[in-house]
Amino acid sequence: LAHAEIMSSSAAESTATLAAVRADLAAAKSEAADWRNAAAEAREKSETHAGERDALKEELTSRNNALRSLGSQLVGVRDELSAEKEALLQAKHELLSTRSELNEVKREREELRSSSVTELSRAKKELLSAKQEMERLRKELAAARSAAALACRSNS
């Protein structure tokens, strides 16, 4: 009987131990399930982040390509602007040359006008002087005619 009690007591302890082990096993299974769920979530997040990362890489690649294209276009525009600037500088040089030539022509024209005015003024003075001389000679001629007429009358 003592042996049966020991066995019964031992069986009760074993049952309690088994129950404790089963409880520990259930807790371990629950914890393992939690870890599996956490791992699945982590994988899902990792895959989501990988997808987002790939999408960001594609967007960055696309933007880099667009920037390279814009850079090439800007180089083309810069070259065109440089060519236009060179053409404008050439046109400016030609304009300055033409302006210089025009100023020379204006100066020559002004000199001609000035000399023409001077010549005209001198010619007017000479004409006036000649008119005065002619008037003086007419008066002398008239006086000489009068004297000749008087002399002819007195001789007759």
TrEMBL record:
Q: Which domain of life is it from?
A: Eukaryota
- Basic and acidic residues composition bias: residue spans: 41-58, 99-113
Q: Which parts of this chain are annotated as the region Disordered? A: 37-58, 99-120
The protein's name is: Uncharacterized protein
Species annotation: Strombidinopsis acuminata
